[in-house]
Design goal:
mainly alpha, Glycosyltransferase, two-stranded antiparallel sheet, 2 strands
């Protein structure tokens, strides 16, 4: 859903080096001192730039696999909403109203809508958030990540795609959500696509985040986000019954057709994945590109959504083999992998030797109906358990602990939107 992104969440990506949160912006100051991580929040990292983002992805992933999120976790997310319906990236003190100093984030608002719609029971909160999103739609039909704020540079592909998916999740018809100038979100999305005359030819079909100097530059991150939105998918991509090879953008392109445009974007992603079997990114200050796990997972979801599971197979296998360290303790990363597994019909509880669901649950409040983990039991209970299993029990405890760590269980940290992956 990965996760594709707002200035706030992008900042987390640079700080934590995780692909499921948006890329960092140099002029976003690092908070000092770091806020205390609330008990109802998933992850142990500083939530300033991605609290709502990672919480939303965690709740969405849990719901997708049939878990019932803890009330504490859901209440924390609901409590982050501002009076006007928007969500900031994170509010340390919800007793204070959102003001000009808060980074109001259309990306955070969009994923919160998707998560709360999936959880259910929060119609008023969702309706209020959707109302705010509609109120800040740009004349071109799209959205920026920070509407009306200091970081508002006009509509971008990622933010617009995320809002489209939020509208779908809330039961709205995105094509009918028109700006004051009469433009729909899909009309805005199509302006970001590199068409049949783009050079190099390999970039044709891709989408740009935003024009830079009047020029569009291919972005795998933006393309993955737009493909899913352009196909009219909601927050969760279900496994497709069809599987055809992804094809390049059909030229001449069909004007005004978001589905055809999305399929062209899928063709670009399929080719981009062939080079290394995964996507790469150049992080701030680095000399060479490195593997981008978050965007690779987003690309897998996008290709699955477009009905090209086989085109995503190599990248899916790469994620199974190489994502354990990246996703360790990272709620948004684990959630994105769960959504990728779901989209491809893969078992998230056996993903390259890792139980992604257990690993995600270990980063936050236990789902309803789940028994407390050993780390959550009172000290006296843990001592009783150790006594019951003793007589060689200490040795077995060490073996089991090592096995659990090797499977990615019991770990904790952070991460669409640069990411963002829905």
């Amino acid at each position: 859903m990965n996760v594709r992104r707002s200035a706030a969440t992008l900042a987390v990506s640079a700080v934590l080096c995780v692909g499921s949160a948006p890329a960092a912006l140099a002029d976003v100051a690092t908070p000092s001192p770091s806020p205390v991580v609330p008990s109802g929040l998933f992850g142990k990292g500083d939530p300033t730039y991605d609290g709502v983002w990672r919480q939303s992805f965690a709740l969405l992933a849990q719901t997708t696999v049939g878990e019932k999120p803890a009330l504490q976790a859901v209440d924390w997310l609901v409590g982050q909403q501002c009076a006007d319906g928007s969500f900031a990236a994170f509010r340390a003190d919800t007793a204070k109203p959102c003001d000009a100093s808060a980074y109001i984030d259309s990306n955070a608002t969009s994923v919160a809508v998707q998560a709360l719609a999936a959880v259910g029971g929060h119609t008023d909160t969702v309706k209020k958030a959707v109302g705010w999103l509609k109120s800040v739609q740009k004349d071109d039909g799209g959205w920026s990540s920070n509407p009306g704020g200091a970081m508002d540079n006009g509509s971008d592909a990622n933010s617009t795609a995320l809002v489209i998916r939020a509208l779908e999740a809330a039961g709205e018809k995105p094509a009918e959500v028109k700006s004051k100038a009469g433009k729909s979100p899909y009309e805005a999305l199509l302006t970001f696509q590199l068409g049949c005359s783009a050079e190099p030819a390999a970039d044709r079909g891709a989408f740009a985040f935003q024009p830079a100097g009047g020029k569009l530059s291919a972005s795998a991150d933006a393309t993955a986000a737009v493909v899913v939105a352009g196909l009219g998918m909601g927050p969760v991509v279900a496994p497709s019954r069809t599987d055809t090879p992804a094809a390049p953008l059909a030229c001449p392109a069909t004007a005004g057709d978001p589905v055809a445009a999305a399929q062209g974007g899928a063709g670009y992603l399929a080719e981009a994945l062939k080079k290394d079997g995964h996507l790469t990114a150049l992080t701030p200050g680095a000399d060479q590109s490195t593997a981008d796990h978050g965007n690779t997972a987003d690309a897998v979801i996008a290709l699955a959504a477009a009905g090209h599971k086989q085109s995503a197979a190599g990248a899916l296998e790469w994620l199974k083999t190489n994502s354990a360290e990246w996703s360790k303790g990272n709620p948004a990363g684990l959630a994105t992998l769960i959504l990728a597994a779901h989209a491809t019909g893969t078992d998230p509880k056996s993903f390259g030797g890792t139980d992604l669901v257990a690993a995600l649950n270990a980063t936050g409040p236990a789902p309803q109906g789940a028994s407390a983990s050993a780390s959550e039991q009172p000290a006296e209970k843990k001592d009783e358990k150790k006594d019951e299993d003793s007589g060689g029990g200490n040795v077995w405890w060490m073996i089991l602990a090592g096995a659990a760590a090797g499977m990615g269980i019991g770990i904790v940290l952070s991460g669409r939107r640069k990411k963002n992956q829905l």
